[in-house]
């Protein structure tokens, strides 16, 4: 359960981890769509149906604001790397798998990895693994660049 008391509500939800992550990301984006979501919830606890109803609006807002700001800071090479990473899903992913998707040697990816970690786009949860720092960013990358060209 996630408690939103800091927003002046006493509403909770129990199901649907992915929509919950979307709503949390939206909260971080400082947009008004989360307020709209809470206003749609007729009862507490908030149901999965309510979350699912709000999801398209939340995803659209995330794409326009929260994700777009991060995306716009990327160089073309960084965009390509993250898009290759998104081919594998949410992650974490082996660095070698990303290099294979890019068609490059894993040893050549150290500087790119370091730049993206410094920008806060990815992190290394374990040796040889990379993951997106922002939940659902893999899906945004696929929406932003529907086809990946090797």
Protein model, in words:
By secondary structure, this protein is mostly helical. It has seven helices and three strands; from the N terminus they run H-H-H-H-E-H-H-E-E-H. The chain has helices at 17-28, 33-40, 48-72, 76-86, 95-102, 110-118, 137-144; strands spanning 93-94, 122-123, 129-132. A three-stranded antiparallel β-sheet has the order 1-3-2. A hairpin with a 5-residue loop joins strand 2 (122-123) and strand 3 (129-132). Helix 4 crosses helix 5 (95-102). The chain is elongated and about 55 Å long. The chain starts with 16 loop residues before the first helix and ends in a 6-residue tail after the last helix.
Mean pLDDT: 80
| Overall radius of gyration | 17 Å
Look at the helices and sheets and give the structural class.
mainly alpha
The span between the termini is 41 Å
Structural shape: elongated
Helical fraction equals 40-55%
Major sheet: arrangement of strands: 1-3-2
Number of strands: 3
